[in-house]
Amino acid sequence: MSTAPKARADLGLLVRREPDEDGPQFKPLEWGLILRLFTYTRPFARKRNALIVLTLIRSIQIPAITWAMGRIISGPIAGSDLVTLPWAVLGFAALAVVTDAMFHFRQRYALELGEQVVNALRSAIFDRMQSMPMSFFHRTKLGRILSRVTTDVEAVRSGIQDVLFVSVIQFGQMLFAAVAMAWCDWLLFLVVLALAPILWLVNNHFRMRLSQASRAAQESFSRVTSTLAESVNGMRVTQGFVRQETNLGLFRTLLADHSRYNIEQARTSAILTPLLELNSQFFIAMLLLLGGWRTFHGAMTIGDLIQFFFLANLFFSPIATIGNQYNQALIAMAGAERVFRLIDAQPDWTDDP
Questions:
Q1: The pTM is what?
Q2: Residue of 131, 202, 185, 224 lying closest to 310 (CA atoms)
Q3: Distance between CA atoms of 309 and 303, rounded to whole angstroms?
Q4: Helices 164-184 and 186-193, interaxial angle, to 10°?
Q5: Residue 280: its pLDDT value, please?
Q6: 252 to each of 2, 47, 228, 229, how far by Cα in Å?
Q7: Residues 76-113: pLDDT tens digits?
């Protein structure tokens, strides 16, 4: 056999898909996996419930601070009410202090809950590995198992600590801002609502590409780590058969694939986020034009316009954050799918007690 065909054959053996990698590249968020992750929070139900309450409260507090700021400007400041202004500022400061204090506990509980769930997942993986026969470890690469315990579990940690609760806060912020804008000026709010279909189309276009790139990057990194672990463990065999250059070329191919997937993911995110930001700024420009016209004709005051813009910025600001969180959710979902597939693996046989 010539060198080139032999190298291609070796590459095919090296990058072949493992049994635990079967499945389509794209897979949307599954409520079944999310609910199963939540079952690992049952031993910490009190902390989990407190975290949910703090998350809901914070989703209201952030818009409330912005709304209070706008009311102070359009009320006591615009009306030169020096008697009410100190009390209004004092109430605003009290609300800010309470908001920061609750943010401390929300962040702390989220980090602690994520760590506890990660410990439970790693214990479940280790317990499952103890019950597997030797044949499982002959056909499964060591690096594949290590990747589940490290990379995939860390992706799940990020999903628990950040994605879920941050997304709830951002969506709650948008909802509260929408209600406040509709109450402040319904005509300008209709302009804001016109942005919703455009944002949905942009997100729907890039959602598939982000999911495919995220899952491909996760799988390629798993192949890199498993190959590295196997190569270091079998270094004596590699040197004994003088395959250093061949194995190095194969490993470089794996690294190039992993780099290509990550670059594709970064490019897609780099297109999506600026597009969302551009749409937001475009509609703010429209609000400036329409709001200025309504102010000149006495339909609303300058203070009301300022307050509406505070709320509009509050409505648009979570869009980029939600886009990034969605990308992280895809990575966490891919990691959870791999982890549970390993945990659910059944041994070929079971020894007698």
A1: 0.70
A2: 185
A3: 10
A4: 140
A5: 67
A6: 21, 46, 11, 15
A7: 887 777 888 888 889 889 988 998 888 889 989 999 99
